[in-house]
From TrEMBL:
The lineage of its organism: Bacteria, Pseudomonadati, Bacteroidota, Cytophagia, Cytophagales. It comes from Pontibacter oryzae. It comes from the Bacteria. This is YCII-related domain-containing protein. SUPFAM superfamilies: Dimeric alpha+beta barrel. Keywords: Signal. Belongs to the YciI family. The keyword Signal applies. The keyword Signal applies. Residues 1-19 form the signal peptide.
Length: 152
């Protein structure tokens, strides 16, 4: 029985060692430039935007704040702080959209969100979460700029 157990442990250890292997197409320069760890991943802050608490009835003011929101998205993306943004479909939680911010801390993300006029005016509120994802996320934005026919 001891021999069988030892053989089972040896075989399992062999499979575990084989489960991870080096990537023959690994590009250290690219990985380092994107801040990737050994798994090609890094930490971000995920922001879930939801309907805020402000009750603004002046539609011109609401339009102005949301135009500022869209402009701010562009500024954060240009600065390399925003890597993903987009609206959510209708839902029962009043969630409106998401951001994935390329920042190190929740406090840095909170400060960055205060540059958004719609967030600052409480038309949008934000829930923030630490998130671990592909370090390659920032490189899709230049490609997107080449495929969007109309800008919002």
């Amino acid at each position: 029985m001891k021999k069988l157990l030892a053989l089972l442990i040896f075989c399992t250890a062999g499979f575990a060692a084989d489960a991870q292997s080096s990537n023959p197409t690994y590009n250290k320069t690219l990985a380092d430039s994107l801040g990737a760890d050994d798994y090609g991943m890094k930490s971000y802050v995920l922001v879930v935007l939801k309907t805020g608490t402000a009750k603004i009835t002046d539609q011109a003011r609401v339009s102005e704040l949301f135009r500022g929101h869209m402009d701010n998205i562009g500024k954060m993306a240009e600065a390399g702080k925003l890597v993903v943004a987009g609206p959510l479909g209708k839902n029962d939680k009043a969630y409106r959209g998401i951001f994935i911010l390329d920042v190190k801390t929740l406090d840095e993300a909170k400060a960055l969100l205060q540059t958004d006029p719609a967030v600052k005016a409480k038309l949008l509120d934000a829930e923030l979460y630490e998130w671990y994802g592909s370090a390659a996320l920032p490189v899709y934005l230049p490609v997107h700029g080449q495929i969007e026919k109309i800008r919002p």
